[in-house]
Specification:
Layout lengths: L1 H16 L2 E4 L9 E5 L6 H8 L2 H4 L2 E6 H4 L3 H10 L3 E3 L6 H15 L4 E4 L17 H8 L4 E8 L1 H4 L13 E4 L11 H17 L1
Parallel strand pairs: 1-7, 2-5, 2-6, 3-4, 3-5
Antiparallel strand pairs: 6-7
């Protein structure tokens, strides 16, 4: 049953988004990666996840908001059984709690899975990419063996803008860029700026 639901969701997602996929800086690979992308729509992680080849998709876990998916039975079923998502708390203000969320994501990766994350932390109101929060930096330090792949998702803010619930079919594009890694001695601000620029650069290609 879950396989059927998954196939239907992927089909509907591709139909609504008209998504095209560009691998401009790397090739599809089942190696462990952290895909980090801009965030403008509720459809972002579904479109990105659906855009991955099947052998990569089954090894890739989106990171999603616990407060959005957990209270609703249908959303929780989709998150757990279809997307195999990692549910985390949003907007944690306590430092120890933020570290717990990072450890939760790293534990969910283990030695097998890749992740999809959105370093902006929340959806933006327009096409501009908001500054990145520090989670990606700490994950890069703790897992230096994992490739960090920038991703730019174009046009989804028009398909399902923030505050809207009914999608409008349009063409969109998911671009995968060149992997980056944390450089020894690099400061948090420098790393986050470089990661941010890697995503923004894909918008211009």
């Amino acid at each position: 049953m879950t396989k059927i639901v998954t196939a239907i969701i992927i089909w509907i997602t591709k139909l609504l988004s008209g998504v095209s996929v560009r691998w401009v800086g790397c090739n599809p690979d089942t190696r462990q990666r952290i895909y980090f992308a801009n965030h403008t729509s509720m459809l972002d992680f579904v479109v990105l996840w659906s855009a991955l080849p099947k052998d990569i998709r089954i090894l890739t876990r989106p990171v999603a908001a616990k407060d959005y998916f957990e209270p609703n039975k249908l959303r929780r079923y989709l998150a757990v059984n279809v997307f195999n998502a990692v549910l985390v708390k949003r907007n944690s203000v306590d430092i120890s709690e933020r570290q717990e969320q990072i450890e939760l994501m790293l534990d969910a990766m283990g030695e097998r899975y890749s992740l999809i994350i959105f370093p902006e932390g929340t959806r933006s109101f327009g096409p501009e990419v908001a500054p990145f929060k520090s989670g990606l930096y700490y994950m890069a330090i703790k897992r230096p063996d994992v490739e960090l792949v920038p991703v730019y998702i174009d046009n989804l803010n028009r398909i399902l803008p923030r505050g809207e619930f009914l999608p409008v079919p349009l063409l969109s594009c998911v671009s995968f860029g060149s992997p980056i890694r944390f450089l020894e001695g690099e400061t948090k601000d420098d790393f986050l700026k470089r990661a941010y620029e890697a995503v923004c650069k894909l918008k211009q290609l």
